[in-house]
């Protein structure tokens, strides 16, 4: 690695650092005690995002995980079953939280691209009988992280949502990267949000804020969510300093997600020319790279990349994930392609055993 070149960190879009302008917004934030409802900057953020999503109310929360977990808590009762995609964040990456926090069973459904279909719901529902748990909630993830930042098509989400509502099943949308779905398709946030009872969105991913997510929904649901957040220790005091960063991110880093998507496509195009690797064409900012050649060992590949100043995440035994974001430019993408080419060349030069 050339020590004068900075590391290109594509492990996640959560690794960004606040820009000087964002730090200024943080420094200048007008704050108050938000547990008393006194922080004007938090109120402004909640009002703006509720309006953007076409919902009555919003609640600022410390993390996407807490937002998802509070939503499940507010939309279910203990003993209920929750329909979700097997590799959704709520099912796969939240430590069994829906069981631990809400007393719910998960009903996972494997899909090819991350989106549940109305038929999945129909197949999962059982006759209303005293022996069985009731499915009262379906969760959608958009964009879908595990499946490579795939966008759930709006008409498919609408079909699922209509089928759920017809059966009295509520819908939560994990929209940690809904911003990316919106920029990639031109579909406004409020159109996606209309398909769900609650929507969680993160500021700490592509939008580049250091901390913060938000849950939107009906006033009564968000009122209940506020109580759960407090019980779980998520009531925050002069948190306008974070809300200011999120407002700055909304104003300055939303439209530019198109740059991340363009760079993800450029990265994929570069990787597509490297023998031994297979790349999944990205829809947004997540690029999945399959180690096709048998000599491409995941650990060795990660080590080789790190030695060249490039960081990506392991995703499954023969897959790597690279996520573009605010802190990576075109030159960085070029360096990642070069590093992958060098590592693939080096490892595949050794005859496979
Ligand atoms: C789809 C999705 N949902 C929820 C989360 C949780 O967000 P947080 O890390 O803020 O808890 C993540 C985090 O990566 C995510 O990718």
Defining key terms:
binds pyridoxal-5'-phosphate, 16% strand, 7-stranded mixed β-sheet, alpha/beta, Aspartate Aminotransferase, domain 2, 2 domains, 13 strands, Aspartate Aminotransferase, domain 1, 4-stranded antiparallel β-sheet, 353 residues, single chain, globular
Strand and helix layout:
Layout: E1 8-9, H1 20-27, H2 40-53, E2 57-61, H3 64-75, E3 81-85, H4 89-92, H5 97-102, E4 105-109, H6 118-124, E5 135-141, H7 154-166, E6 170-175, H8 178-185, H9 189-193, E7 198-202, E8 213-217, H10 219-231, H11 240-252, H12 257-272, E9 277-279, E10 286-291, H13 298-307, E11 310-311, E12 313-314, E13 319-323, H14 330-349
Parallel strand pairs: 1-11, 3-4, 3-5, 5-6, 6-7
Antiparallel strand pairs: 2-8, 7-8, 9-10, 10-13, 12-13
Pyridoxal-5'-phosphate binds next to α3.
Describe this structure in words.
With about 350 residues, this protein is an alpha/beta fold. The chain folds into 2 domains: about 10-15 and about 255-350, Aspartate Aminotransferase, domain 1; about 30-250, Aspartate Aminotransferase, domain 2 (3-Layer(aba) Sandwich), CATH 3.40.640.10. It has helices spanning about 20-25, 40-55, 65-75, 90, 95-100, 120-125, 155-165, 180-185, 190-195, 220-230, 240-250, 255-270, 300-305, 330-350, and strands at about 10, 55-60, 80-85, 105-110, 135-140, 170-175, 200, 215, 275-280, 285-290, 310, 315, 320-325. The strands form 3 sheets. The protein has a 7-stranded mixed sheet with strand order 2-8-7-6-5-3-4, sandwiched between helices. The protein has a 4-stranded antiparallel sheet with strand order 9-10-13-12. A two-stranded parallel ribbon has the order 1-11. Helix 1 (about 20-25) packs antiparallel against helix 11 (about 240-250), helix 3 packs across helix 10 and helix 13 (about 300-305) packs across helix 14. The longest helix has 20 residues, at about 330-350. The two termini are about 30 Å apart. The structure holds pyridoxal-5'-phosphate.
């Amino acid at each position: 690695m050339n020590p004068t070149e900075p590391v290109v960190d594509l492990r996640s879009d959560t690794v960004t650092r606040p820009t000087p302008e964002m730090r200024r917004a943080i420094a200048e934030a007008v704050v108050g005690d938000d547990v008393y409802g006194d922080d004007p900057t938090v109120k402004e953020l909640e009002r703006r995002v509720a309006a953007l999503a076409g919902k009555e109310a919003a609640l600022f929360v410390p993390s996407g995980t807490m937002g998802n977990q509070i939503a499940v808590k507010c939309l279910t009762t203990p003993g209920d079953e929750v329909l979700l995609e097997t590799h959704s964040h709520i099912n796969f990456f939240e430590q069994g939280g829906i069981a631990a926090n809400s007393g719910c069973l998960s009903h996972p459904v494997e899909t090819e691209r991350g989106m549940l279909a109305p038929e999945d719901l129909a197949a999962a529902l059982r006759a209303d009988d005293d022996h069985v748990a009731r499915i009262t909630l379906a969760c959608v993830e958009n964009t879908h992280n595990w499946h490579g930042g795939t966008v759930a098509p709006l008409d498919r989400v609408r079909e699922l949502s209509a089928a759920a509502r017809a059966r009295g099943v509520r819908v939560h949308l994990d929209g940690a990267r809904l911003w990316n779905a919106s920029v990639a398709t031109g579909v406004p946030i409020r159109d996606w949000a209309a398909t769900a009872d609650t929507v969680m969105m993160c500021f700490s991913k592509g939008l580049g804020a250091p901390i913060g997510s938000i849950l939107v929904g009906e006033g009564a649901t968000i009122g209940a969510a506020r109580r759960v957040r407090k019980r779980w220790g998520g009531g925050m005091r002069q948190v306008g300093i974070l809300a200011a960063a999120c407002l700055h991110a909304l104003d300055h880093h939303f439209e530019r997600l198109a740059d991340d998507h363009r760079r993800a496509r450029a990265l994929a195009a570069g990787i597509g020319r490297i023998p031994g690797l297979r790349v999944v064409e990205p829809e947004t900012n997540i690029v999945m790279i399959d180690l096709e050649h048998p000599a491409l060992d995941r650990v060795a590949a990660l080590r080789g990349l790190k030695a060249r100043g490039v960081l990506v995440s392991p995703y499954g035994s023969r897959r790597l994930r690279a996520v573009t974001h605010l802190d990576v430019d075109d030159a960085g993408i070029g360096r990642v392609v070069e590093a992958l080419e060098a590592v693939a060349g080096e490892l595949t030069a050794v005859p496979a055993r």
